[in-house]
User: Fold this.
Amino acid sequence: MYRRYFGFNAKPFSKTPDPKFLFYGKHYEEALQRILYAIEERELALLTGDVGVGKTTLIRVLLEQLTEDQHAVSIIDPLLSPGQFMRAVVKSLGNEPPKHMRADLVEQAQNLLLSFHRQGRYPVVIIDEAQLCSKALLDEIRLITNFQLNHLNLLSLVLVGQTELRTRLRKPVYAPLRQRIGIHYHLEPLTPEDTISYVNHRLRRAGVRPTTVFSADALEAVHPLSGGVPRVINVLCTNAMIAAFTRKEKPISLETLQAAAQEVV
Assistant:
Protein backbone atom coordinates (compact mmCIF):
# COMPACT_ATOMS: atom_id res chain seq x y z
CA MET A 1 0.00 0.00 0.00
CA TYR A 2 2.80 2.47 0.78
CA ARG A 3 4.21 1.88 -2.74
CA ARG A 4 1.01 3.26 -4.28
CA TYR A 5 0.89 6.08 -1.73
CA PHE A 6 4.36 7.35 -2.62
CA GLY A 7 4.16 6.41 -6.32
CA PHE A 8 6.93 3.79 -6.43
CA ASN A 9 7.20 1.40 -9.37
CA ALA A 10 9.37 -0.95 -7.25
CA LYS A 11 10.31 -1.37 -3.61
CA PRO A 12 13.11 1.16 -3.08
CA PHE A 13 14.52 -0.47 0.05
CA SER A 14 14.03 -4.18 -0.51
CA LYS A 15 16.18 -6.54 1.56
CA THR A 16 16.94 -8.56 -1.58
CA PRO A 17 20.40 -7.65 -2.98
CA ASP A 18 19.26 -6.31 -6.37
CA PRO A 19 22.22 -5.13 -8.52
CA LYS A 20 20.14 -2.45 -10.26
CA PHE A 21 19.81 -0.66 -6.92
CA LEU A 22 23.55 -0.76 -6.17
CA PHE A 23 24.79 2.67 -5.16
CA TYR A 24 28.18 3.33 -6.70
CA GLY A 25 29.69 5.34 -3.90
CA LYS A 26 33.43 5.84 -3.80
CA HIS A 27 34.09 2.79 -1.63
CA TYR A 28 31.85 0.47 -3.63
CA GLU A 29 33.34 1.49 -6.96
CA GLU A 30 36.87 1.05 -5.63
CA ALA A 31 36.02 -2.36 -4.15
CA LEU A 32 34.48 -3.53 -7.42
CA GLN A 33 37.42 -2.37 -9.51
CA ARG A 34 39.98 -3.96 -7.19
CA ILE A 35 38.22 -7.32 -7.24
CA LEU A 36 37.84 -7.18 -11.02
CA TYR A 37 41.56 -6.42 -11.31
CA ALA A 38 42.40 -9.42 -9.10
CA ILE A 39 40.23 -11.62 -11.30
CA GLU A 40 41.89 -10.39 -14.48
CA GLU A 41 45.29 -11.07 -12.94
CA ARG A 42 44.06 -14.47 -11.69
CA GLU A 43 44.94 -13.69 -8.10
CA LEU A 44 43.35 -14.53 -4.76
CA ALA A 45 41.19 -11.62 -3.60
CA LEU A 46 39.64 -10.96 -0.19
CA LEU A 47 36.53 -8.80 0.32
CA THR A 48 35.48 -8.18 3.92
CA GLY A 49 33.01 -5.94 5.70
CA ASP A 50 30.58 -5.81 8.59
CA VAL A 51 27.11 -7.36 8.36
CA GLY A 52 24.82 -5.44 6.02
CA VAL A 53 27.35 -3.20 4.24
CA GLY A 54 26.51 -4.62 0.81
CA LYS A 55 29.06 -7.35 0.08
CA THR A 56 26.53 -9.73 -1.46
CA THR A 57 25.06 -7.04 -3.70
CA LEU A 58 28.55 -6.11 -4.83
CA ILE A 59 29.28 -9.74 -5.72
CA ARG A 60 26.02 -9.90 -7.71
CA VAL A 61 27.22 -6.91 -9.74
CA LEU A 62 30.64 -8.51 -10.08
CA LEU A 63 29.11 -11.66 -11.55
CA GLU A 64 27.25 -9.58 -14.13
CA GLN A 65 30.52 -7.98 -15.25
CA LEU A 66 32.43 -11.20 -15.84
CA THR A 67 33.41 -11.70 -19.47
CA GLU A 68 32.74 -14.71 -21.70
CA ASP A 69 36.17 -16.18 -20.96
CA GLN A 70 35.51 -16.14 -17.21
CA HIS A 71 33.47 -19.02 -15.77
CA ALA A 72 31.82 -18.24 -12.43
CA VAL A 73 31.80 -20.90 -9.70
CA SER A 74 29.80 -19.71 -6.68
CA ILE A 75 30.20 -21.56 -3.38
CA ILE A 76 27.42 -20.45 -1.05
CA ASP A 77 27.88 -23.13 1.62
CA PRO A 78 31.03 -22.34 3.63
CA LEU A 79 30.44 -25.35 5.91
CA LEU A 80 31.55 -27.86 3.28
CA SER A 81 34.34 -30.27 4.07
CA PRO A 82 37.48 -29.97 1.92
CA GLY A 83 36.38 -32.97 -0.14
CA GLN A 84 32.87 -31.59 -0.63
CA PHE A 85 34.31 -28.24 -1.64
CA MET A 86 36.58 -29.79 -4.26
CA ARG A 87 33.71 -31.87 -5.62
CA ALA A 88 31.51 -28.76 -5.83
CA VAL A 89 34.22 -26.97 -7.83
CA VAL A 90 34.74 -29.94 -10.17
CA LYS A 91 30.98 -30.35 -10.66
CA SER A 92 30.73 -26.68 -11.68
CA LEU A 93 33.56 -27.09 -14.19
CA GLY A 94 32.55 -30.24 -16.04
CA ASN A 95 29.78 -32.61 -17.01
CA GLU A 96 31.33 -35.77 -15.56
CA PRO A 97 30.52 -36.77 -11.96
CA PRO A 98 33.35 -35.84 -9.56
CA LYS A 99 35.72 -38.63 -8.56
CA HIS A 100 35.70 -39.96 -4.99
CA MET A 101 39.35 -40.55 -4.17
CA ARG A 102 41.21 -37.33 -3.38
CA ALA A 103 44.11 -38.03 -5.75
CA ASP A 104 41.65 -38.76 -8.59
CA LEU A 105 39.62 -35.67 -7.74
CA VAL A 106 42.69 -33.41 -7.82
CA GLU A 107 43.75 -34.89 -11.15
CA GLN A 108 40.24 -34.40 -12.52
CA ALA A 109 40.24 -30.74 -11.42
CA GLN A 110 43.68 -30.20 -12.98
CA ASN A 111 42.54 -31.70 -16.29
CA LEU A 112 39.40 -29.57 -16.35
CA LEU A 113 41.38 -26.41 -15.67
CA LEU A 114 43.85 -27.25 -18.43
CA SER A 115 40.92 -27.81 -20.78
CA PHE A 116 39.55 -24.39 -19.85
CA HIS A 117 43.00 -22.89 -20.47
CA ARG A 118 43.20 -24.40 -23.96
CA GLN A 119 39.83 -22.78 -24.70
CA GLY A 120 41.14 -19.40 -23.55
CA ARG A 121 38.93 -19.46 -20.45
CA TYR A 122 39.43 -19.68 -16.71
CA PRO A 123 37.12 -20.14 -13.70
CA VAL A 124 36.42 -17.51 -11.05
CA VAL A 125 35.67 -19.29 -7.75
CA ILE A 126 33.73 -17.11 -5.29
CA ILE A 127 33.28 -18.32 -1.70
CA ASP A 128 30.67 -16.33 0.26
CA GLU A 129 30.42 -16.17 4.06
CA ALA A 130 34.01 -17.37 4.17
CA GLN A 131 34.36 -16.45 7.85
CA LEU A 132 32.48 -19.70 8.54
CA CYS A 133 35.00 -21.88 6.68
CA SER A 134 36.86 -24.42 8.79
CA LYS A 135 40.65 -24.26 8.94
CA ALA A 136 40.74 -27.45 6.88
CA LEU A 137 38.63 -25.82 4.16
CA LEU A 138 40.76 -22.67 4.15
CA ASP A 139 43.81 -24.90 3.73
CA GLU A 140 42.10 -26.60 0.78
CA ILE A 141 41.33 -23.19 -0.74
CA ARG A 142 45.00 -22.30 -0.42
CA LEU A 143 46.02 -25.55 -2.08
CA ILE A 144 43.86 -24.99 -5.17
CA THR A 145 45.83 -21.83 -5.85
CA ASN A 146 48.58 -24.30 -6.80
CA PHE A 147 46.70 -25.08 -10.00
CA GLN A 148 48.94 -23.08 -12.28
CA LEU A 149 51.30 -23.11 -15.21
CA ASN A 150 54.78 -21.62 -15.16
CA HIS A 151 53.56 -18.18 -16.14
CA LEU A 152 49.98 -17.90 -14.83
CA ASN A 153 47.33 -19.29 -12.50
CA LEU A 154 44.57 -21.42 -13.97
CA LEU A 155 41.79 -19.85 -11.89
CA SER A 156 40.89 -16.83 -9.77
CA LEU A 157 39.60 -16.99 -6.20
CA VAL A 158 37.48 -14.47 -4.30
CA LEU A 159 36.91 -14.89 -0.56
CA VAL A 160 33.98 -12.85 0.78
CA GLY A 161 33.38 -12.61 4.50
CA GLN A 162 32.61 -10.57 7.56
CA THR A 163 35.19 -8.50 9.41
CA GLU A 164 36.08 -11.42 11.67
CA LEU A 165 37.60 -13.19 8.65
CA ARG A 166 40.18 -10.43 8.28
CA THR A 167 41.01 -10.71 11.98
CA ARG A 168 41.21 -14.48 11.76
CA LEU A 169 43.59 -14.45 8.81
CA ARG A 170 46.06 -12.32 10.78
CA LYS A 171 46.83 -15.31 13.02
CA PRO A 172 50.21 -16.97 12.30
CA VAL A 173 48.56 -20.29 11.44
CA TYR A 174 46.93 -18.67 8.41
CA ALA A 175 50.11 -16.99 7.13
CA PRO A 176 50.45 -19.37 4.13
CA LEU A 177 46.96 -18.39 2.92
CA ARG A 178 47.29 -14.71 3.82
CA GLN A 179 50.52 -14.38 1.87
CA ARG A 180 48.74 -15.55 -1.29
CA ILE A 181 46.13 -12.81 -1.15
CA GLY A 182 46.89 -10.37 -3.95
CA ILE A 183 44.05 -7.90 -3.35
CA HIS A 184 42.23 -7.13 -0.10
CA TYR A 185 39.43 -4.61 0.29
CA HIS A 186 37.45 -3.89 3.46
CA LEU A 187 34.04 -2.38 2.74
CA GLU A 188 33.18 0.36 5.22
CA PRO A 189 29.71 1.75 6.09
CA LEU A 190 28.54 4.77 4.13
CA THR A 191 29.61 8.29 5.10
CA PRO A 192 26.89 10.85 5.98
CA GLU A 193 27.12 12.34 2.49
CA ASP A 194 26.99 8.94 0.79
CA THR A 195 24.05 7.90 2.97
CA ILE A 196 21.99 10.78 1.61
CA SER A 197 23.09 9.94 -1.94
CA TYR A 198 22.27 6.27 -1.32
CA VAL A 199 18.71 7.01 -0.18
CA ASN A 200 18.12 9.45 -3.04
CA HIS A 201 19.57 6.99 -5.57
CA ARG A 202 17.23 4.19 -4.50
CA LEU A 203 14.21 6.48 -4.49
CA ARG A 204 14.99 7.61 -8.03
CA ARG A 205 15.48 4.01 -9.15
CA ALA A 206 12.01 3.32 -7.73
CA GLY A 207 10.57 6.08 -9.91
CA VAL A 208 10.01 9.07 -7.58
CA ARG A 209 11.60 12.39 -6.75
CA PRO A 210 13.40 12.06 -3.38
CA THR A 211 12.03 15.34 -2.01
CA THR A 212 8.49 13.93 -2.17
CA VAL A 213 9.36 11.11 0.24
CA PHE A 214 11.67 12.46 2.97
CA SER A 215 11.88 15.94 4.44
CA ALA A 216 15.35 17.49 4.45
CA ASP A 217 15.87 17.07 8.20
CA ALA A 218 14.63 13.46 8.11
CA LEU A 219 17.02 12.65 5.28
CA GLU A 220 19.98 14.10 7.20
CA ALA A 221 19.03 12.00 10.23
CA VAL A 222 19.18 8.68 8.35
CA HIS A 223 22.94 8.33 8.84
CA PRO A 224 23.13 8.88 12.62
CA LEU A 225 20.14 6.56 13.08
CA SER A 226 21.56 3.78 10.87
CA GLY A 227 25.33 4.11 11.22
CA GLY A 228 25.57 4.20 7.43
CA VAL A 229 24.94 0.44 7.12
CA PRO A 230 22.88 -0.11 3.93
CA ARG A 231 20.84 -3.00 5.33
CA VAL A 232 19.89 -0.96 8.39
CA ILE A 233 19.10 2.04 6.17
CA ASN A 234 16.75 -0.14 4.13
CA VAL A 235 14.86 -1.38 7.20
CA LEU A 236 14.73 2.11 8.73
CA CYS A 237 13.40 3.77 5.58
CA THR A 238 10.85 1.03 4.95
CA ASN A 239 9.51 1.30 8.51
CA ALA A 240 9.32 5.09 8.17
CA MET A 241 7.40 4.85 4.88
CA ILE A 242 4.88 2.41 6.37
CA ALA A 243 4.39 4.69 9.36
CA ALA A 244 4.00 7.74 7.11
CA PHE A 245 1.42 5.92 5.01
CA THR A 246 -0.71 5.07 8.06
CA ARG A 247 -0.48 8.69 9.20
CA LYS A 248 -1.11 10.05 5.69
CA GLU A 249 2.09 12.05 6.01
CA LYS A 250 4.17 13.14 3.04
CA PRO A 251 7.06 13.91 3.03
CA ILE A 252 8.23 11.87 5.99
CA SER A 253 9.04 14.01 9.00
CA LEU A 254 12.01 13.74 11.33
CA GLU A 255 9.69 12.65 14.15
CA THR A 256 8.28 9.77 12.09
CA LEU A 257 11.78 8.62 11.09
CA GLN A 258 12.95 8.73 14.72
CA ALA A 259 9.93 6.71 15.81
CA ALA A 260 10.65 4.17 13.08
CA ALA A 261 14.23 3.87 14.34
CA GLN A 262 12.91 2.52 17.64
CA GLU A 263 11.63 -0.54 15.74
CA VAL A 264 14.94 -1.34 14.06
CA VAL A 265 16.61 -4.26 15.83
User: Anything to note?
Assistant: The chain has twelve helices and five strands. Residues 92 and 160 are 19 Å apart (CA to CA).
